[in-house]
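In this section we walk through a basic example: taking a raw amino acid sequence and producing a predicted 3D structure, encoded as discrete structure tokens. The instruction is simple. Fold the sequence below.
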Amino acid sequence: MPMRSAHSPPSPHCNTPCTRRTPCSPQDFNFRELFVPEGNWLHEAFAVEDRYFGGEKVPISAFTRSTVDGRDYYHYQDQLQALSDALA
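The resulting token sequence is shown next.
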């Protein structure tokens, strides 16, 4: 009786076969290919996400001071939008 191989076939998003010694890393897991069927509208959303938010992500933070007149930040949406535009 032939022995079964301990290797699993390479996944479509990973060039290396996964074995007990070299398991696929979590970075190789691509939920888009595995769980979203071809032709689904989500692929259009993924394309938009990749276009505008792809590449290297650099986390930033912006801190604001308390309002001087006691109103909440809802009243300062125009200034918060200007801050967002300046950071983009």
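Looking at the output, two observations stand out. Residues 12 and 34 are 9 Å apart (CA to CA). Residues 1-13 have pLDDT under 50 and may be disordered. In the next section we compare this with other chains.
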